[in-house]
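Quick illustration for those who missed Monday's session on complexes.
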Amino acid sequence: MSSKVFIITGASRGLGLAVAQYLAQASHRVFLVARTEKDLQAFKAQHGSSVEYLAVDLADWKVAPRIIESALQAFGRVDGVVVNHGVLAPITRISESNVEEWRKAYDINVLSALALVKEAIPELRKSNGRVVFISTGAAFGAYSGWGSYGTSKASLTHLSAHLALEEPAITSVAISPGKVDTDMQKQIREGGKEAMTPDLHAHFVDEHKSGRLLDPKKPGNVIARLVEGATKDVNGKHFRWNAPELANFQDV
Ligand SMILES: NC(=O)c1ccc[n+]([C@@H]2O[C@H](COP(=O)([O-])OP(=O)(O)OC[C@H]3O[C@@H](n4cnc5c(N)ncnc54)[C@H](OP(=O)(O)O)[C@@H]3O)[C@@H](O)[C@H]2O)c1
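Prediction with NAP bound:
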């Protein structure tokens, strides 16, 4: 496959870093976005001129035009976007909620994705590009204390379906990556006890203790192959990373 250009958000660590590693190793050019500049710089130091980045806070969704302009300045085209950044916080029950905290989570999880994808559409139309949105099981089932996360991710997942419907030149898919061994899981174990039900919290602690959390590379490789070459049969749909429908994109 010839070298393409991909934008990956939340690429400083965890799942986004795994996606970026796969794509860089496959000789693509990658444009990384996250807040932690030293992590993005370290990735660039390993891969050189095929990597560029912008260290920005996506809570300010007005940065979207700068991201697309910088990617175009660096590489001249955009073939795909992985909307991977996301926050679980605030973990609070509705009765204890602070609406401002939810608003910030929606800015990060939903509105920044909308702003970025909107800016990318003209380039993605030209390239017949792809967008992969990172969803979660919590977008479909309710978990006590995760209202902000679950409702915002449900909205993000639905955005993918709308994009698929409105933009025939673009392929869009939403992927749930399973329980992945990243900082987000640590946050659940360390900060979720109060608002989650004891059973649910204990389940996440146990998944970690018994080594059942996924290596980010497992779902990361599937997501990377989807942004490289997702086919129209997945357009507008949501899948778990290990769904049989995605067999062509999974490790053999
Ligand atoms: N881990 C799981 O079990 C799991 C399960 C289902 C879905 N997911 C989803 O997978 C995606 C990746 O999560 P992860 O598990 O890899 O979590 P993570 O380790 O916490 O990584 C989150 C990434 O998002 C970036 N980010 C967060 N807030 C940002 C902001 N305001 N502006 C710019 N970048 C921001 C972080 O970078 P900086 O801190 O450097 O900004 C980091 O690169 C998320 O969308 C998450 O909801 C994860």
